[in-house]
Amino acid sequence: MGLEVPLVNPWLALTPGDDPAERIRQVGRAHEQFLTGNARPARMRSVVADSWARSAASIGADSTAPIDLADDDLEAYRSAHPLARVMPIFRDLLGGLADDGDHILAVCDAHGRLLWVEGRPATLRGAASMNFVPGARWDEANAGTNAPGTALAVDHAIQIFATEHFSRTAQSWTCAAAPIHDPGTGRLLGAIDVTGGDHLANPHSLALVRATALAAEAYLGAAKPLGDRPAVAALGRDEALLAVGGKRLRLGRRHSELLVLLTVHPEGRTGDQLGVDLYGDDVNPVTVRAELSRLRRILGPELLDSRPYRLRAAMDVDFGTVGRLLDGGRVAEALTAYPGMLLPGSDAPGVVRLRRRLDDRLRAAVLATGDRRLLQTWLNGPLGTDDLEMWQAYAALTPTDPVAARRVAELSREFALCNVVAT
Q1: Over the stretch 174-189, which tens digit does the pLDDT of each residue have?
Q2: Which of 53, 66, 9 is nearest to 145 (CA)?
Q3: Which CATH class is domain 46-223?
Q4: Who's near 113: CB < 8 A, 6+ residues apart?
C-alpha cells in the first residue's frame, strides 16, 4: 500500500509549495499505475484514490460521459428543478469567472446530470469535446472522478486537479464543486461547479463555490421556511436528518432506525415490538430501552411519548412523500423525489422490510410506464446497474443504443452462469 501525502485540507488539490507541473506528472504516473493493477498508488489524496476505485468499477479510463437529457426533455426537466430558482445567485457570484473566458460555470442535479453549463463560446467548445454539456451525466459511475460527480458522491466540496480525473479526456481541466441541499429536508439537490485551468487549484476557488452553495441554500431556506411539522429525511443516507423547531439534527444509526419505524406506526409500538424490528430474534430489551431513552432526550417529551412509544406530532417523511406520489400515479415525481434507498446501511429487519416495499413499488411503477426517460433514470440509479428486466425494457425502447444491448447481453450471461452454478 502506498503512502498518502499528509494534507492540511484533504479537499484541496495542492498544498503550499507544490509545483503544479510536477504534481500533474506525479499523479499522472499514479493514474497509469492504478490502471495497470496498483490498487493504491503512492502520494495520492485518499478521497481521489477512493474515487478512482469507485469509477473503475463502472467505466474505463477512456470513457466519455453519456448524454442523458436533450432538447425538450432537458428544458422541461431543468425549468422545474429547484435549482432553477437560484441560478441568478450562481450567475451573480460565479458568472464573472465564466465571463473572463477561462472558466465554465456548471450546475448539476443530484444524479450528476448537467443542467446548466455557461461560459464563453470558445471555452464551451473545448468542454464539449469531453461531453461537458447540458444533459450529460457526470456522476462518477458515468464520467469517473470529477469535481461535481465526486462532490455528490462524498457530499462535500472538493477540488479535482488535472490528472486526478479518472477519465483521460478530462485531465486537461481542473474543477471545484460543492453540493447543495434542500434546507428543509437535507435532501441533496445537486452541485455547483467551476471548471477551468490548473490555476483553479487554490483555496480561493474551493471557498468560493462552497460560499455560493451556502448562499443558494440560505435563499431556498428563506423562500421556503421550515414548516410547523417536523421533517425527516432518510432516503439515500445512512443517518437520518431531522428538522424540528428551526434546528436540523443528524441522528445516529440506531436512532435513525427507531425514528423511521415510529413514523410508520403512529399508533405506537411497545419496546418489545421495536426490539424485534431492530434486532429480529436477537433482542436485548435493556439495549432497546436505553436507545429509546436516548432518543427521547434528543426529541424531547413533547415529541416522543412512551407506553407505548409513539410520536406525539405528525412528521413529514421523505419516503412517505414518495409513497404518496405513487399512490396518486405521479411516477415521474416519485422518482425525482427518490435520491436513494431508505437508510441503505441498515440491516434492522423492520427497516429492511420498509426499504424493499418502497423500492419494489417504485420499480414496478417505473417499469409499467414504459417511459424511456424514467427507465433510464432508474438504470442510472443505485438499483438499476444489475436490473436485467429493466435493461431489457429499456433496450426494447432504444433498439439502436449499443450500450443497452451490450448490458442486456452481459447480464444475461451472468445470470445464466449463476443458474448453472446454483444447479
Answers
A1: 999 999 998 877 778 9
A2: 53
A3: alpha beta
A4: 68, 69, 77, 135, 136, 137, 138
Q: Do 242 and 313 meet the contact criterion of CB atoms below 8 Å apart?
A: no
CA separation for the pair 112, 135 (Å, rounded): 9
Domain boundaries along the sequence of the chain: 46-223, 226-369, 386-423
Residues 84 and 102: their CA atoms lie apart, in Å, by 24
The distance of Cα 308 from the centroid of its chain, to the nearest Å, equals: 36
CB atoms within 10 A of CB 39: 12
* 343 contact partners, CB below 8 Å, separation of at least 6: 234, 237, 238, 240, 253, 256, 257, 260, 351, 355
**Predicted local distance difference test score (pLDDT) of residue 230:** 83
Select the CATH number that applies to the domain covering 226-369 from these four: 1.10.260.40, 3.30.43.10, 1.20.1740.10, 1.10.10.10: 1.10.10.10
pLDDT single digits (tens) 237-275: 888 988 877 777 888 999 999 999 999 988 888 888 888
Rounded CA separation 423/379 (Å): 29
The sheet that has 114-118: what strands, in order across it?
114-118, 104-109, 188-196, 174-181, 158-161
